[in-house]
């Protein structure tokens, strides 16, 4: 009896303590801007209700957009998801987002750091803050200078014509359905083995690398799922990821040692250097000595190579899928693209030659760039939560102080991109809005984010997308497969699902990506036959 009595007292004490903590926490939101708030549930019930309106595993930023527009929330608002999620401060205006990305560089939130470090290592630039991040950024950034990136256009062209075009031709001849996600990932990984790693990779090693990166991405996707996963499947996915990381580490270590010897004595302005080569040369200028790499320098390089390759495999290929998705639904845009490509570059043979001789001519593809930007507006891929600056407790926006302590601070690109006051008719695919530099307000287009932590590979990614479009859209027509258009839209901010069905809403993965593998058909145009 005494034992039972003691257990009951412990239970009563635990429940009472939790109730006091719950009430105290909920009251913190009393005077803060927010959607309707429950003393019992906070915003948990509201968030769950919002999730139910969208397909399974929809990207989180889409939920914030739905909530912000339903309750007319502007600038900054709060989401109280305790105890199942961190308290969140959502920034939904360009000026508010700039305060934590551009005006001041707020540190990445520990959950984002833990997520990326678990995939590629704790030394990856995207998994660090403070002086460690600054040092890594100074090491890597020179390899992504505009002159270095533009010199890679010929490599991207060769990979596209020699790998992607024959694949599309086979698919057209077979008239079958294929996964654009897989095809784009293979293309971008193959491009990256040259632009990032230097192309010194045997074909069997490249195949193994693709499988290993795929296993890492599969694990990254699994741990972001909002639906439950079989425990055995979870363990198996984790085990495959763990083994894949070990293989990739060993492979990259060998590659780094080989390139270290080859680049010794080579100047940083030499032609034909990869990003790895330039980073090794830059590192000898003060990051490590001229002797063999010590274990810390090797770990730094390997972790960041994984981060760069994973980014190319995921984010750039996901954007390419979204572009083809939109082109399949907008033949008028395809027509304008083809006209621009013919006018600026001529036929395929001359296009490859010009890309190698005059890569800066890519900058003349204004409409192509607008198509890429509009796709990234509709389908932003990034999600980069921040945390409060050390020693501060609030953020001042439009003359008012907003508490930041213990908050996950989320600059929400998706919500900004769908704000009708910034982008009229935000659910409409309209590349022309990016042709006039005065139409889009400064700071409102931010798929690569802004400020010091903006994506270091953004110029390379944009050029890769321009080149792939230049060398494919005149020869092929793309068609979405297995689409089930809705009769009524799921959301107030877009009606793309009336055309694309659930493909209109990205799903959670390493980055927000088109769902279902982006299944497509392709046919040759008259020019491509």
From TrEMBL:
Transmembrane segments: none annotated. GO terms for biological process: secondary metabolite biosynthetic process. Keywords: Heme, Iron, Metal-binding, Monooxygenase, Oxidoreductase. Its cofactor is heme. Heme binds at residue 455. Gene3D superfamilies: Cytochrome P450. GO terms for molecular function: heme binding; iron ion binding; monooxygenase activity; oxidoreductase activity, acting on paired donors, with incorporation or reduction of molecular oxygen. Pathway: Secondary metabolite biosynthesis. Belongs to the cytochrome P450 family. This is Cytochrome P450. It comes from Aspergillus calidoustus.
């Amino acid at each position: 009896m005494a034992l039972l009595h003691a257990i009951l007292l412990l239970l009563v004490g635990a429940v009472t303590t939790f109730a006091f903590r719950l009430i105290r926490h909920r009251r913190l939101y009393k005077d803060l801007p927010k959607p309707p708030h429950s003393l019992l549930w906070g915003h948990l019930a509201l968030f769950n209700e919002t999730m139910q309106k969208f397909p399974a595993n929809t990207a989180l930023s889409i939920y914030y957009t739905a909530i912000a527009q339903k309750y007319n929330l502007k600038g900054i608002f709060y989401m109280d998801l305790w105890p199942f999620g961190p308290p969140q401060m959502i920034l939904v205006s360009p000026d508010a987002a700039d305060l934590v990305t551009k005006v001041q560089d707020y540190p990445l939130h520990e959950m984002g750091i833990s997520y990326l470090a678990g995939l590629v290592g704790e030394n990856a630039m995207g998994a660090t803050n403070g002086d460690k991040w600054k040092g890594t950024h100074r090491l890597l950034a020179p390899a992504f200078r505009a002159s270095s990136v533009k010199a890679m256009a010929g490599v991207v062209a060769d990979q596209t014509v020699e790998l992607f075009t024959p694949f599309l031709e086979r698919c057209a001849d077979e008239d079958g359905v294929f996964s654009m996600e897989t095809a784009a990932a293979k293309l971008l990984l193959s491009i990256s083995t040259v632009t990032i790693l230097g192309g010194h990779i045997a074909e069997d090693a490249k195949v193994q690398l693709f499988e290993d990166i795929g296993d890492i991405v599969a694990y990254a996707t699994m741990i972001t799922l909002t639906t439950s996963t079989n425990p055995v499947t979870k363990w198996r996915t984790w085990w495959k990821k763990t083994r894949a990381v070990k293989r990739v580490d060993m492979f990259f270590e060998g590659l780094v040692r080989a390139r270290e010897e080859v680049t010794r004595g080579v100047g940083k302005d030499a032609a034909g250097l990869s990003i790895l080569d330039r980073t090794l040369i830059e590192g000898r200028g003060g990051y490590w000595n001229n002797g063999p790499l010590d274990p810390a320098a090797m770990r730094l390089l390997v972790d960041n190579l994984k981060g760069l390759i994973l980014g190319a495999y995921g984010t750039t290929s996901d954007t390419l899928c979204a572009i083809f998705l939109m082109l399949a639904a907008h033949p008028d845009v395809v027509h304008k693209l083809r006209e621009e490509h013919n006018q600026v570059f001529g036929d395929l043979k001359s296009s490859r030659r010009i890309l190698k001789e005059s890569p800066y001519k890519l900058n003349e593809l204004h409409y192509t760039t607008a198509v890429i930007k509009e796709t990234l507006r509709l389908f932003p891929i990034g999600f980069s939560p921040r945390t409060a600056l050390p020693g501060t407790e609030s953020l001042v926006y439009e003359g008012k102080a907003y508490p930041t302590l213990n908050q996950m601070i989320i600059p929400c690109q998706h919500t900004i991109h769908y704000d009708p006051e910034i982008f009229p008719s935000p659910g409409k695919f309209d590349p022309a809005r990016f042709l006039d530099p005065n139409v889009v307000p400064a700071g409102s287009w931010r798929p690569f984010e802004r400020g010091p932590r903006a994506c270091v590979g953004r110029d390379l990614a944009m050029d890769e997308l321009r080149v792939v479009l230049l060398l494919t859209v005149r020869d092929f027509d793309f068609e979405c497969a297995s689409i089930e258009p809705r009769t009524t839209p799921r959301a107030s901010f877009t009606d793309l699902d009336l055309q694309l069905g659930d493909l209109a809403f990205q799903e959670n993965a390493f980055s927000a990506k088109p769902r279902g593998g982006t299944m497509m058909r392709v046919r040759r145009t008259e020019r491509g036959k």
